[in-house]
Write a structure and sequence with these properties.
Elements (H helix, E strand, L loop, with lengths): L7 E2 L2 H8 L7 E8 L9 E8 L2 E5 L8 H7 L3 E4 L2 H12 L5 E4 H7 L7 H9 L19 H12 L1 H14 L3 H17 L18 H21 L9 H12 L12 H15 L19 H21 L9 H8 L11 H6 L4
Parallel strand pairs: 1-4, 2-5, 5-6
Antiparallel strand pairs: 2-3, 3-4
Length: about 350
Amino acid sequence: METGESEMIDTPDGLDRLLSPLSPGEVCAIDTEADSLHRYKESLCLIQFAVGSESVLIDPLALDQMDALGSFLRTATVWMHGADYDMTMLRREFDEISPVVYDTQIGARLLGVQKFGLANLVEHYFGVVLSKTSQKADWGKRPLSSKMREYALNDVRYLLPMGERIVEELKEKGRYEWFVESCDAARQKVLERDELKEDPWRVQGSGRLDRKGLNYLRALWQWRDGEAESWDRPSFMVATNRNLLEWSGSLAAGKKVEFPGHFRSDRRRRLEAALSKAGKQAPTDFPEKIKGLRRRRDSDFENRVNEMLAIRDRKAEELEIDSSLIASRAVIETLMSDDEGADDLLLKWQKECLDLV
């Protein structure tokens, strides 16, 4: 690759020059930046790309189409760090994910590394301390400052040599197959994820509300979503999920709610109109509570769960890894309940650690 290390690829010709020398199945490293902290609708704003010893920036905002990159990624082996988000962004852009995606975070955790953020691992493996000053920058703005470019390039600059060292250590410990299986499962999870969430207003914690509270929560969420869209800002800038839950609970209990004083008068009027409409809703039209799976938690069940937790914890201590990597308590409870499909919750290596094969 002949491009300079600090080059921004922002034309189709530049993208072709970057990719044409590369072979199908090439190993590369990728990271992405979006504007979710600054816009209502998240956009892919930057792709950091490394192959061999070279690193460049690709500007999706300047390129009308990136078919050449999509074609390259269709056969590439890609290294990422904390790959779930980046795989999600690339799937939205190209409607697919590279056939092999390796995650340095997964590898580091399987080695028992306690601090596995990218900056932690770069310092651990290379003794380099990375700056975090652009972590919350607005990546949708142009031009990018030199500091932002450097920050972005550092997200991929070390991934390939780091991946080589992680693989070497995993093979020494006999855990490389665990790594490959875990990375493949993470990739499959993103492919199977339904991004069109049903009832998106059912935020975490909403299960504690009664039906009247859920009615107010739905109204508040829809009001917030409309405000965020018209303002073109993330919804949390209007009100947080915690705000919505607290207000919904209070309104359902007939309590007076003091809304933030910084709300503009027009925003407050729309809020009051939304709540007035919700207050007139017939109880028969309130949202239903989602019934969770009820388990019979008798002493025999608790004993079986605790026995399996003890096996897990002993194995994790022996391997010097976080026990949650083998199985969470929730997964173990599902296994002990013999729920349908419970066996599919664990990977082959996890079953081996729990003596289930």
